[in-house]
């Protein structure tokens, strides 16, 4: 077997410290509830995406911004230990590193409060400082959590260089049409799709309508996460992948794993349909594990999982692709 080509991915997105407390139930306003579990870990959708890319065997570079505080330096060290290149992460002397506070009950329901901190100050100048690195990448993965003008600047650089562009916004927000028109594939959950298209995604038909809306407006292809599975729609056709019959433990990192896997597979010069199949399996494996960061799988685990699924014909979808 020929050696696999190593993909080269640049991720643009947010970086934060995540504090997570779990207890039997969530507190009401003004109430104090005793919890039983606490975690402090590397957070931010950009950081999670970059780690997911690295664990899947690709060269991973993160473009983002942290504060010059203890937390920021610790996050950079963690990223580097994961194999993520951090030279394109700006150090902000005036703003603290982003933070997310999350409370989770036994049913998995969560309440979150976040402060963007240095993330909100990522600027076009920071992106231009990483222009050479973006230009050399196979794929630019944009995950937001940072100002849109910085994301648009990175997308324009990647587009001019002929790189693939994967847009995977992890928050329900409107996006400029020029951004949609520049991306090769946009990956959305139901909440994001509703904001961008005005359509509630509840099944295959509504996912198809949302994807058609995005492709009509200029996106090369769209992947929509419906409650029952993932739909890929583009100019070459349609691919529907139903949820795999696995035990779902924690879906916190599944979306980042999906976008990272699409990016890595495209960087390895695989077809978009094959990339989405690979991502579908990767996100399911992630959801079988506890923790947004700790649940992100490495390449060997994913390939073993894919082999089992193919052996059971579980990655043979209804498709016109």
From TrEMBL:
Presence of keyword Nucleotide-binding: yes
GO cellular component, one term: cytosol
Record carries keyword Transferase: yes
Listed cofactors: Mg(2+)
Activity regulation (UniProt): Activated by a monovalent cation that binds near, but not in, the active site. The most likely occupant of the site in vivo is potassium. Ion binding induces a conformational change that may alter substrate affinity.
Record-listed ATP binding positions: 232-237, 280
EC numbers on record: 2.7.1.15
Molecular functions per Gene Ontology: ATP binding; metal ion binding; ribokinase activity
InterPro entries attached to this UniProt entry: PfkB_dom, Ribo/fructo_kinase, Ribokinase, Ribokinase-like
Database matches in Gene3D superfamilies: 3.40.1190.20
Binding-site residues, substrate: 16-18
A biological process from GO: D-ribose catabolic process
Positions annotated to bind K(+): 250, 252, 286, 289, 291
Pathway linked to the protein: Carbohydrate metabolism; D-ribose degradation; D-ribose 5-phosphate from beta-D-ribopyranose: step 2/2
Cellular compartment(s): Cytoplasm
Class of this enzyme: transferase
Textual note on the cofactor: Requires a divalent cation, most likely magnesium in vivo, as an electrophilic catalyst to aid phosphoryl group transfer. It is the chelate of the metal and the nucleotide that is the actual substrate.
Domain Carbohydrate kinase PfkB: from-to ranges: 7-298
Key words of the record: ATP-binding, Carbohydrate metabolism, Cytoplasm, Kinase, Magnesium, Metal-binding, Nucleotide-binding, Potassium, Transferase
Annotated family: Belongs to the carbohydrate kinase PfkB family. Ribokinase subfamily.
Subunit structure: Homodimer.
Described purpose of this protein according to its UniProt entry: Catalyzes the phosphorylation of ribose at O-5 in a reaction requiring ATP and magnesium. The resulting D-ribose-5-phosphate can then be used either for sythesis of nucleotides, histidine, and tryptophan, or as a component of the pentose phosphate pathway.
Stated name of the protein: Ribokinase
Protein species of origin: Myxococcus stipitatus (strain DSM 14675 / JCM 12634 / Mx s8)
Gene expressing this chain: rbsK
């Amino acid at each position: 077997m020929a050696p696999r080509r190593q993909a080269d991915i640049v991720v643009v997105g947010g970086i934060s410290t995540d504090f997570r407390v779990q207890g039997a139930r969530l507190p009401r306003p003004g109430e104090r509830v005793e919890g039983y579990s606490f975690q402090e870990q590397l957070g931010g959708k950009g950081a999670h995406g970059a780690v997911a890319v690295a664990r899947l065997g690709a060269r991973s570079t993160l473009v983002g911004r942290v504060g010059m505080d203890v937390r920021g330096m610790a996050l950079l060290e963690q990223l580097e230990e994961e194999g993520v290149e951090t030279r394109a992460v700006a150090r902000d002397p005036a703003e603290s590193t982003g933070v997310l506070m999350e409370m989770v009950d036994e049913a998995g329901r969560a309440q979150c409060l976040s402060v963007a901190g240095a993330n909100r100050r990522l600027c076009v100048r920071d992106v231009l400082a990483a222009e050479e690195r973006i230009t050399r990448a196979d794929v630019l993965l944009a995950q937001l959590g940072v100002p849109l003008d910085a994301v648009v600047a990175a997308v324009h650089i990647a587009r001019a260089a002929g790189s693939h562009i994967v847009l995977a916004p992890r928050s329900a927000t409107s996006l400029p049409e020029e951004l949609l028109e520049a991306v090769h594939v946009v990956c959305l959950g139901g909440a994001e799709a509703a904001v961008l298209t005005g359509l509630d995604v509840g099944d295959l038909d509504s996912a198809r309508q949302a994807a058609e809306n995005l492709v009509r407006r200029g996106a090369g292809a769209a992947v929509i996460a419906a409650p029952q599975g993932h739909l890929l729609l583009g100019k070459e056709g349609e691919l529907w992948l139903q949820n795999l019959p696995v035990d779902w433990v924690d879906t916190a990192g599944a979306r980042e794993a999906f976008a990272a896997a699409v990016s890595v597979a495209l960087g390895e010069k695989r077809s978009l349909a094959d990339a989405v199949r690979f991502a579908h399996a990767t996100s399911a494996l992630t959801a079988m594990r506890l923790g947004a960061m700790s649940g992100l799988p490495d390449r060997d685990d994913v390939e073993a999982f894919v082999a089992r699924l193919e052996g059971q014909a579980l990655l043979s979808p209804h498709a016109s692709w």
